[in-house]
Write a structure and sequence with these properties.
This protein is α+β, with helices and mostly antiparallel strands and 144 residues long. It has helices at residues 2-20, 53-56; strands spanning 43-50, 64-69, 72-82, 85-94, 101-108, 113-116, 121-122, 128-129, 136-137, 141-142. 22% of the residues are buried.
Length: 144
């Protein structure tokens, strides 16, 4: 009996330690981001963004990009290809007196990984962030 308990403890300990070695990104289900439809939004701003080089190599046409204020989706990206370049155009909804910060999330359908930025952009009514000539490169990190 003692031998069985000792073996069980050793196996349990081994499984706990081996589980700690892995640092995989989460494997979320494909996104179903819906832009908040609050009728009280009275303004928008536009963001034109691109993926960093390390993610651009893995990009798929059905990947998804969205802008968030907190946990609320404020805009979904529309992929536009110009030659070999891939841009995401995002119309971000908000309020004229709003000063909240916007974060971006990106779902890569090829590797089923989620990536996100910090809350990096202050909402600016009728503002533009990035352009076709000078798009903003997002500093996306894997979500664990």
């Amino acid at each position: 009996m003692k031998k069985s308990i000792s073996i069980l403890i050793v196996l349990l300990g081994f499984s706990l330690f081996s589980a700690c070695d892995k640092e995989d990104f989460t494997q979320p289900a494909p996104t179903n981001w819906q832009v908040s439809e609050s009728e009280s939004f009275n303004t928008t701003m536009t963001a034109i963004v691109v993926l960093p080089d390390n993610l651009l190599k893995q990009a798929q046409d059905n990947d998804q990009m969205a802008a968030f204020m907190g946990e609320e989706c404020r805009g979904k990206g529309e992929l536009v290809k110009v030659g070999e370049q891939r841009f995401y155009f995002i119309t971000i909804k908000g309020f004229s007196d709003e000063q909240g910060k916007i974060a971006f999330k990106y779902y890569n359908s090829g590797n089923s990984n989620m990536y996100a930025t910090e809350a990096i952009l202050t909402f600016e009514p009728d503002g533009d962030w990035g352009s076709l000539d000078n798009p903003k490169i997002l500093d996306l990190k894997g979500v664990k």
